[in-house]
Amino acid sequence: xxxxxxxxxxAIFGSTGSIGxxxxxxxxxxxxxxxxxxxxxxxxxELLIRQALQFQxxxxxxxxxxxxxxxxxxxxxxxxxxxxxxxxxDEVAAMxxxxxxxxxxxxxxxxxxxxxAIDAGKAIALAxxxxxxxxxxxxxxxxVENRVPVIPVDSEHxxxxxxxxxxxxxxxxxxxxxxxxxxxxxxxxNYLVNVKxxxxxxxxxxxxxxxxxxDSATLMNKGLEMIEAKWLFNLRPEQIQVVIHxxxxxxxxxxxxxxxxxxxxxLPDMKLPIQYAMAFPKRIPSDFPRYDFKKVxxxxxxxxxxxxxxxxALAQEALEKGGNLPCVMNAANEIAVFAFLxxxxxxxxxxxxxxxxxxxxxxxxxxxxxxYFESDGEARNFAADIIKL
Length: 389
Ligand code: NDP
Ligand code: MG
Description:
Layout: E1 8-13, H1 18-29, E2 34-41, H2 45-55, E3 59-62, H3 68-74, E4 81-84, H4 86-93, E5 100-103, H5 111-119, E6 123-126, H6 129-145, E7 150-152, H7 155-164, E8 172-179, H8 189-192, H9 197-200, H10 210-218, H11 220-233, E9 240-244, E10 250-256, E11 261-265, H12 271-279, H13 310-321, H14 325-341, H15 349-360, H16 369-387
């Protein structure tokens, strides 16, 4: 166990994922500043064990209870505590042994542990955007009540957050979220109907987990990010604009009421926003590759094509109507992406599944947390029925 209280003690929920492994790289590069106190995985026991042996956390959690014995035996010679199951994730989230949760589980599964951490007064570095899409009003309200900082890790929101440092008294006119456009930028439906998961998993600028990579290819990722921005920065829907910027150098922008626009720039590398969120309010040194103006000398911008990439239009509708609609959309999207990744439906079918589910599930204007959970379940069942999963 790490007893050095001068270090920030980090709990990485989702340590075996793309964000989680990069966060561990940041911790390994700054052992004087951070320690990994909690590591969690769903089913990748082998990587979780290796990470635990290297970082010697206080606690590890494996979501899949069938893997508990393997993990426990592999760590038997250490004093690392091992837990298993979804409930253990919630319990560990509320424990005293860490200072900051890096919420890096993918999808709806990340919501409950993050809620527990907020209730326990832990600072949150938030990668899991679905948490805010599902129940952003409740999350942000609880964060305010518990005086919990929610520091974005998503690169666009980290960019906006960085642009807002020192601007607390100044009104935001709008935020401009940049989007790479994904691998199918400029393509039309007759092409998209035939794309296979292998194509869609090839992102031009970022290497990420499978779900967010598909979301980037459909532009749903940008739609989720619009809703994420609404809650993080307390914006009205019309204050959130999306612009396609294929080079992914400008990570997002804020326009103030005098017309001035601030942008945050750099090479596309998630380690930077991860490190920024973990070290906030300080900036600490890094050896990440630097942007070279000679190598990428042209930055371009264009309008998103929401007639082809209809998920973005659906997300815009969910953003504007609010209530349980973003939660319903998110649930249908998770089912649709899961089915696409298993070659059960084609690329364009994903949008149809989401649209039908959004039309079907009854609208609730001001849902309670329980009603969000119910809407999620109903939407998942309905979407799975359409696909016949
Ligand atoms: P990955 O799929 O790479 O990793 C997901 C992590 O969550 C893994 O540790 C996985 O464990 C764990 N996990 C999966 N399902 C469950 C579950 N049901 N219960 C508990 N744990 C689970 O995802 P990413 O790292 O790409 O993304 C994580 C989050 O960060 C997402 O919400 C994404 O939108 C967001 N994000 C990611 C970015 C990126 O660059 N990757 C950029 C911006 C935001 P196991 O390995 O055992 O399956
Ligand atoms: Mg992003």
